């Protein structure tokens, strides 16, 4: 199975996700700091500016 934890949950966004903690998608609130993209840190993120994670260097 694919890891979809970085993809925002469209149902959570509108307050209607019934999967709760079992949802494979991200329930991160807008404005919450994003997790750092470990692939970007390694210089290997294939998503570029479309990546759902933060592109910051430590």
TrEMBL record:
Keyword Zinc annotated: yes
UniProt GO BP: protein polyubiquitination
Keyword vocabulary terms for this entry: Metal-binding, Repeat, Zinc, Zinc-finger
C3H1-type Zn finger ranges: 3-30, 31-58
Signal peptide: none
GO molecular function: ubiquitin protein ligase activity; zinc ion binding
Gene3D superfamilies xrefs: Zinc finger, CCCH-type (4.10.1000.10)
Residue stretches making up the C3H1-type domain: 3-30, 31-58
Protein name: C3H1-type domain-containing protein
């Amino acid at each position: 199975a694919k890891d979809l934890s970085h993809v925002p949950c469209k149902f959570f966004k509108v307050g209607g996700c019934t999967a709760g903690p079992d949802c494979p998608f991200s329930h991160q609130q807008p404005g919450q700091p994003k997790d750092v993209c470990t692939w970007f840190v390694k210089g290997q993120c294939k998503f570029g500016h479309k990546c759902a994670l933060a592109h910051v260097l430590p």
